[in-house]
Amino acid sequence: MSVKHKKTTATILACLIALCLASAVYPGYLLHSGYSSNTYSAGCTNTAPLFGGQFFEQTFSPLYSHLEKMEIAVDYDEALAEGVFLTFELADSSERILFTCDIPLTDLACSTYSDIPVKKVLKPDNLYSWRIYASGDVSLQLLHTEIAENQAPENQTLTLAGDVLNGQSVSQYHYTIHPSMIYILQGWLGAVLLLLVMLDWIRRRFSSR
After folding, report:
1. What pTM value is reported for the model?
2. Are residues 50 and 163 in contact, defined by beta-carbon separation less than 8 angstroms?
3. Number of separate domains in the chain
4. Which tens digit of pLDDT belongs to each residue from 98-111?
5. Pair (20, 45) in one structural domain
């Protein structure tokens, strides 16, 4: 193999190695961890029933920015649930709607956790609220707890039709936690530095021949 071909091969090899190392040290959105906070259901009770035109509202302050999904627990009369939809809305402190979805009530299990497919980037420690209401005349109840140590740390105030309730909703918040941008940039800078060192080593090795 000629010296020119050796140089080309070595350069390509160095680039591939550097890219592999960059992928390894660049966690970004390739590597992440999850975190869930929840309300312990022990000692929870049903709220008073909610009727058409009324809504439950839970204010909360997220612990992390990437909210992947939520879980809430409701109760309702299954005999009257056919064709009824539960509307879920997520809003910021100015009441701007950030997310909304309609879920057939029959898709939600009674008196146990059900998924709400929220996937939003929020600002930790800012105040947000979510509200739920049902179409039709079916009565809807939300599971909640007055035991402080069982409550999700995000939850702040729970209301029914504007009236503040004692306790907080039985709810779970699921987050995806990405590495800090500082660590991402450090990884890239390290990979670039390594590439430069390897290319300089290759240049010196072959220029001496």
Report:
1. 0.71
2. no
3. 2
4. 999 999 999 999 98
5. no
